[in-house]
Amino acid sequence: MLSWYVGVLGMVWGVGWWFTTYKTPADHPRISFEEREYIEKALAAKGGRKVCTDIFNCLKLFATTLLKAKAMLGMSVACMQVVDAKNGRLTQ
Q1: Of 43, 9, 7, 8, whose CA–CA distance to 23 is shortest?
Q2: Which is nearest to 44 in space by CA: 25, 22, 20, 21?
Q3: How far apart are CA 70 and CA 74, in angstroms?
Q4: Alpha-carbon distances of 38 from 26, 35, 51, 52, 78, rounded to whole Å
Q5: Fewer CB within 10 A of the terminal residue: the chain, N end or C end?
Q6: pLDDT in tens, 16-32
């Protein structure tokens, strides 16, 4: 049941993110001129690269995500074995 709550929360977060983010600082309606100028200068200093490309090239993020997925798989297998042992269906 907890997975349903987490899934629904993720969907709500995704929909909220979709409607509150903008492609460029110039498209954002609630950003001040000074703030937009600061962000655009910072992006120009990085060579105009988007942050998203940096995220996909981050080895630490990839390793952490892989280890988290492996831990979740291990935990789900352990939980299934506990249920099977409780019901007397655990085989060796």
Answers
A1: 43
A2: 25
A3: 6
A4: 12, 5, 15, 19, 50
A5: C
A6: 988 888 888 888 888 89
